[in-house]
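Blinded run. Sample ID left blank on purpose so nobody reads anything into the name before looking at the predicted structure. Input follows.
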Amino acid sequence: MSRNLEQLIDINSLQRLSEGMEGELLYDDVMRALYATDASVYRAMPLAVAYPRSDTDIIQLINFATENETYLIPRAAGTSLAGQTVGEGIVVDCSKYLNAIIEVNAEEQWALVQPGVVRDELNKELSTMGLFFSPITSTANRATIGGMVGNNSSGTNSIIYGTTRDKIIEVHGILSDGSLVTFRNESTQEYSSKIKSDSLYDRIREHLHSSLSDDNFRKLIEQNYPKKSIHRRNTGYALDVLSNSRLYGGESQYNIGKLICGSEGTLMMITKIKIALDHIPPDHDAVIAVHCNSIDESLRATQLAMQYELFACELMDKIILDCTKENELQNSNRIFVEGDPEAILLLDIRSNTKEELDLLTGEIVDHLKSNNLGYAYPLIHGKNTKKVWQLRSAGLGLLANLKGDAKAVACIEDTAVDLDDLPNYIADFNEMLAEYGQRSIHYAHAGAGEIHLRPILNLKEKSDREKFYSISKSTAELVKKYNGSLSGEHGDGRVRAPFIPMMVGPEIYAFYHELKQIWDPYNIFNRGKILDAEPMNESLRYDQDQDIAEPETIFDFNETNGFLRATEKCNGSGDCRKLPLSGGTMCPSYQATRNEKDTTRARANILREYLTRSNKKNRFDHQEIKEVLDLCLSCKGCTSECPSNVNMTIMKSEVQYQYYKSHRIPIRALLFAHINNLNRLGSIFPRFYNFMLDSWPGRLIKRIIGVHEKRSLPLISTVSLRKWYRKEYEAPDSPIKEVILFVDEFTNYNDVQIGIKAIKLLRSLNYNVLLVDHQESGRAAFSKGLLEKAKRHAEYNVKVFGKKVSTETPLIGIEPSAILSFRDEYPRIVGEHLREASESLKSNVFTIDEFIATEYLAKNIDSSSFAEDTNHIKLHGHCHQKALSDINNTVIMLS
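Blinded prediction complete.
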């Protein structure tokens, strides 16, 4: 932009707008920085962030934008890959408040929802009626219906259910003049009788109708738009869909709402959407994982497989598959991978009976084999199919795990061509890419003629920024050669908008401007998207050739080439925005508040923003960083559930440590970090100590350290676990093996009875339990950023246990956050001289339920040793256990 909106608009004007809204308008530096990026490569500092609660709020925002020459950027989950939700205007986040399911009509199979409703949350409610909203993106557990309409999202099963546009019944919204409108299906008679006034609504309808009534214009559309056989067509505005309506001798009903779908918020603000629903697919399902020796072989297998009625036909190449090995959660989902394939084609087959399913899967496999397509065809049934699709959905985030500054960049990943053209198109594409010295990543929707292709580029460097543009341009030319769609489902946004004139021709592009002028004469809706975009290789997250020194840290971040690059692992895919019904741990603070500020993505973004742009000697010394990280609970859910393996727990500890170099350590942090020392002192006179905590001194302490008055402080036992062990423990006569129990600081003083029961349990199972002298785990010090203290404990414990622990004598812990520090924090913080010892310890350190489950599966423990009582147990797993271990170990132990 030629002018800086921030300088043009009086801060008092924003204040007045804020005071007049039912919702919120935020324009502090933190919130603006958090919304400066999305899942794309772009960065632009917005003027403000709005959370509207009502139509009235949206009308006020429209009026403000018109009067102040700014613009509105609709946004929900912010998972757009083409930069649709990034800009210098006001970001309008509809996900926080405009997220109601207004009405569901099961008999007529439709739902009326607000734009902020999350797709999977809607389907959870619909499941009781045997219905679902069928388009399913890889981001379905946080993607909203409004965002899916904006991009015309498709997903894995579009080959059978169609795209979001196919599900549009009505679109309700607000036009640029503040008028409320509804676009729905219209017959020829209804249409001709309704254009009566000079309202903006009627001018829009008349303009479209008069233009599309022209036979020559419709012919121009047919000549310039992608082939009709490509159902994922999303380049520019959907004039081809309206042109094919019965109003003009076509096949479908005329509905301007279809034009809104895929318009990326450039024409109006959506307030409600009425969508068609489908019946839930048949119960009996299976996935054939066709293992191929080349990409070309997988594409030819796709053409053959698509002769059958598949529910999905998805591709994953070797690069993606290799990335899954490095992710804790996804590595466990690789149950179906055999050997080292160049590509795997995932065929989803469903049927009403198991017999029909078996016949169909057998026929498909035989057909593939007879054509020498594939070398392995594992069949996955039932619950295990979920693992397959989890692995497939994680593809986008997993690409961020490529080490170094070169990443798989989303710029050409959304092309779609006719299925008959797919092998030749990909062959031409790979040949073209080789001319740039590149090898692409291939994955996603092969059955729809859409392969997500990504070059690997370092967008910090000038040369690769130039390739970013030139590869995109060459790809657009190739897509045009095959009469395909440059955007299949991710939208045009910033990244593809410069090539739309090439794709649709000058006459159609001129009509787009005419259309935009009538709908949005003041250009207040998502300016620079689809039309008149800035150069696609500008306004990126980093300044060109920016030389940014990595900060010195106490934790070892060598695996990511430094702390800053650890923050860069977050690619903005927004997995941390999933809501409770989606399951998992990440991110509990966001699930409670639904504030973007409380996501792992926000924390990574604020760190990247200030570490790359700060002029301070201590770049961690920013109140803004402290504010955004404050509600991080250090649950470690992101270490396993984030496809990019962003370890915010480690980063938060490091940030606190670095921040304290410039600030006094709060008394609260000191007290919590030294809880073991306090408990040791209290254990001299435990009853007196507990009395003090339970009376007025305890209330005063809580007030001083900021603990809520209704929260109790941990009391200590009258005897420590170590004292009990010395007095009471007797070793078994002929033990299976010896085990060392890690006596963490909490079990030793606070939860002694749990420790006693654990020792008795192991003793009764014929294991000799040893206690050795060691220091506290340092868990409290880690969590409060007192890392020099934590490092001393870690190094002492590694020295002690490095000499004693082995496969024959494992180390067992009760408190997951303490014992699992050996796997996560210890190898990253101990000195170089102890690094190897710390790494080797990891394989012989177990939580108690891990140990019992492992020994049971090894047949060292027999179920006859336990009582046969049947009980209903509610199991709440520890967050660190879920992230670094497996709660199924507890299930095995209890069953």
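Unblinding after everyone has recorded impressions. The chain has a mean pLDDT of 93.
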